[in-house]
Amino acid sequence: MDFQQFLSSELERIEQAGLLRRLRTLESAQGAEVLCDGAEIINFSSNDYLGLAAHPRLREEACRVLEEAGAGAGASRLICGNHREHERLDEALARFKGTEAALSFSTGYAAAVGVIPTVAGSTDVVILDKLCHASLVDGARLGGANVRVFPHNNLEKLASHLRWAREKFPTGRVLVVVESVYSMDGDVAPLREVVELKEAHGAWLMVDEAHGVGVLGASGRGLADALGLGGRIEIQMGTLGKALGSAGAYICGSRALRDFLINRARSFIFSTAPSPATAAASRAAVEILESPAGAERVAMLWNNIRSLEAGIPGSRAESAIFPIVIGGELEAVELSLRLREEGFLVPAIRYPTVARGSARLRIALSASHQKEEIVSLAHTLRGLQGTPGTPTGAPGTPLPAD
Ligand SMILES: *Cc1c(COP(=O)(O)O)cnc(C)c1O
């Protein structure tokens, strides 16, 4: 078959399933209001939960380091790309998370696929929550580990997988992988119980706080810190491109973990270091979180979360993410388009990001939203209910009714 023919027939298949994705283009800074494809729109789709992406301190630090250190790192950190700014960021992250050491990566995806294979290979087991992010699943597969998946937040099934792993691989390593806040459902892991289970079975635990850091716990230190569990989790991961407003990710833990990853994590070793300016922006974000201004931003975010809850009767949020499950892919897209016409950017999330038939609107809140914007979104959502052709929103959170 001709290559171009192959591409167009595949694209047609994707489109017919209601799964075709297109890029939107922003012409403004990231924020609660953005200029998107030429139109001003209120943005309820960003993971910039604290509104730090366009914060003056991050800009200033990035610009200062850009002037000083130039645009690029030049090489991987092990060759000659390890700038003082990368070390300053790693130190700030360890201090912020209260761990012995930290190692930053260029992205969360790189951290996940870099770290998991260093711990779990073909004679080992990785046990993941069903809703774990694609990067964690890919990391488990890449290392060739024996992978088991338990239904979302189902502790009984996790316990039975742990027993299975111990029986089948008595000398193997067993790594449990969970998130703290799940990215498409916005709910939280029963972390204390997960820690107790993995300890009871002699397994290790990796927790990805991509959507927890900056949102949960004192000054946004995350769920592990909020529950006082940091010292019992072998590998703490988080990203720098979401609430921290920059780009990259961190792994926090022992000094030996950091040294081991520097020697073994292929996505760290064989990849150019992030720009020093990006590291500086990330470090500035950590410093803001450690200051009273950071605690204030986290409080503003939670005020906004409570405002949206109040506007969607019956809803209860555990994080900055509000999913409204629609079901059908085409219906979710249609609703997203209607919201767009009303001036709101609320993406339809579809397979393969979520399971088939559980397409949803994903509302993400930020500390930088104005109260009126949230009230107006809730009002518009209530107005969509009952419009001809609007699905009733089962299963999951129904579309709100007045
Ligand atoms: C976004 C995300 C990642 C990937 O992080 P990037 O920095 O965007 O590559 C990893 N894990 C989870 C849970 C995420 O939500």
Task: Describe the protein's architecture and organization.
The chain has helices spanning 3-16, 56-69, 77-81, 84-97, 108-119, 134-142, 155-168, 191-200, 223-226, 255-264, 266-269, 276-290, 292-311, 329-341, 371-384, and strands at 33-36, 39-43, 101-105, 125-129, 146-150, 174-179, 204-208, 235-239, 249-253, 321-327, 344-345, 348-349, 359-364. It has 402 residues and is an alpha/beta fold. Strand 4 (125-129), helix 6 (134-142) and strand 5 form a beta-alpha-beta unit. Helix 4 (84-97) packs parallel to helix 12. It contains 15 helices and 13 strands. It starts with a helix and ends in an 18-residue tail after the last helix. The model is unreliable at 388-402 (pLDDT under 50). The strands form 3 sheets. It has a 7-stranded mixed beta sheet with strand order 3-9-8-7-6-4-5, sandwiched between helices. Bound molecules: pyridoxal-5'-phosphate. Pyridoxal-5'-phosphate binds at residues 107-109, 112, 133, 135, 179, 183, 208, 210-211, 239, 241, 249. Pyridoxal-5'-phosphate is lined by residues 107-109, 112, 133, 135, 179, 183, 208, 210-211, 239, 241, 249.
What small ligands are held by the chains? pyridoxal-5'-phosphate
* Low-pLDDT residue spans: 388-402
- Say how many strands there are: 13
Q: Which strand order spans the largest sheet, edge to edge or round the barrel?
A: 3-9-8-7-6-4-5
Helix tally equals 15
Q: What is Rg?
A: 21 Å
The share of residues in helices is 40-55%
Q: What proportion strand?
A: 15-25%
Give the structural class.
alpha/beta
* Structural shape: globular
How far apart, in Å, are the first and last alpha carbons?
54 Å
**SSE series:** HEEHHHEHEHEHEHEHEEHHHHEHEEEH
Mean pLDDT across residues = 94
Describe the biggest sheet? Answer: 7 strands, mixed
